[in-house]
C-alpha cells in the first residue's frame, strides 16, 4: 500500500463525511506538476487536497490550504500529516493576494476553489446550516462574533429585503415566504433552523420535487451571512494575478450566481480586461491574462451524482495564465 492509500484507509469519520466532487476532472484541469506550488482555497474535509498532495508527493511540490472554518484546518492538517510540504491558513480566500504575498510564495502553478460548504459543516450543530435539524440559526463559517448571524438578518431585514434576497437565489415563492417570515417573527423571534424551515415549508408546496422547500432560502441566507459572492469576486482576480505562466485556476460552482461571477471574471481576463466597469463601459486595452481551459463547464456523470448527490449541481470551469 502506498502512503496515500495507507492514509486513506485510516481516515476518520469527519474526513470521510465529505466526498470530493469531480475528483478526476479537477486533477486533470489543474494539470498538476509534481514540483509546483498549489493552493486549495477551500480545504473542507481535505478530499481534493489529499488528491493534489498525492501528486505533489512524487516531486518537491507544495500545497497551501485556506479555509474560514477552523475545524477544517484541524481535520486537513491531520489528514495530510504524511505530506510535509502542506501549510494551512485560517483565512477568507478573499484575502488570497495578501496571504500569498505575506507568505512570500512564488507564482502559483494552480489554485482550486470548491465553493460552498462541506458536509462536515452541515452536520455541525453549532453552525446552524441545516434545515434538516433544529439548531441555533447562525450560519457563520468562521464564527466571528462581530458579524451578523442568519437569525439577525431574519429579525432585522425588511420584507422587501428578504423578498429580494430569496428571489435573487431563484426562490419562486420569495414573496409569500418573506411575508410569512415577517408575520411569524412578530409572534416570536425566529431563532432556530427548525422553526425557519417550518415557516418556509408552511407556504411552499413540495409537490413531487425531491428538493426541500427551504433549500434556496437557506442557500441565500448562508451566502449573505458569509458574503460568499463578494469573496469570490475579490479572490479570483487576486489569484489570476499570482499565477505563473501556464498555471491554472479551477473553480467548482454549485449555483448560477457563483457560476456567473466566475464566468464574468474569467471572460474579462481572457479578453484582456481587468477593470470593474460593466462590459459596455470598459476601456481596457490590456493583453489577455488567461485562456480558457474549460469554458464550457464540466459536469458530473450520472454515476457520480448517484454516488454523491451533493455533486448534482456542480460545474467545473478553468483557465490557464498566459
Ligand atoms: C465544498 S467545501 C470544500 C470541500 C473540499 N474540496 C473537499 O474535498 O473536502 C467548501 C469549503 O470552503 C470553505 N469556504 C467557503 N467560503 C470560503 C471563503 N470565502 N474563504 C475560505 N474558505 C471558504 C468552507 O468553510 C468549506 O470548508
Summary, kept brief:
With 322 residues, the protein is α/β, with parallel strands linked by helices. 43% of the residues lie in helices and 15% in strands. It has two domains: 3-120 and 228-321, Rossmann fold (3-Layer(aba) Sandwich), CATH 3.40.50.150; 124-226, Putative methyltransferase TM0872, insert domain (DNA polymerase, domain 1).
Task: Indicate the percent of residues in helices.
Answer: 40-55%
Extract low-pLDDT stretches.
1-10
Overall residue-averaged pLDDT value:
91
- The third-level CATH topology of the largest domain is Rossmann fold
**Strand residue content:** 15-25%
- Morphology call: globular
Question: What CATH first level of the largest domain would be assigned?
Answer: Alpha Beta
Number of helices: 15
Bound molecules: S-adenosylmethionine
Radius of gyration: 20 Å
Q: What is the element string, with H for helices and E for strands?
A: HHHEHEHEHEHHHHHHHEHEHE
CATH homologous superfamily title of the largest domain: Vaccinia Virus protein VP39
Description:
- The chain has about 325 residues and is α/β, with parallel strands linked by helices.
- It has two domains: about 5-120 and about 230-320, 3-Layer(aba) Sandwich (Rossmann fold), CATH 3.40.50; about 125-225, DNA polymerase, domain 1.
- Helix content is about 45%, strand content about 15%.
- The protein contains 15 helices and seven strands.
- Strands 3-2-1-4-5-7-6 form a seven-stranded mixed β-sheet, sandwiched between helices.
- α4 (about 45-55) links the parallel β1 (about 35-40) and β2 (about 60-65).
- α9 (about 160-170) crosses α10.
- It is globular.
- The protein starts with a helix and ends with a strand.
- Mean pLDDT is about 90; it is low at about 1-10.
- S-adenosylmethionine binds near residues 44, 47, 72 and 228.
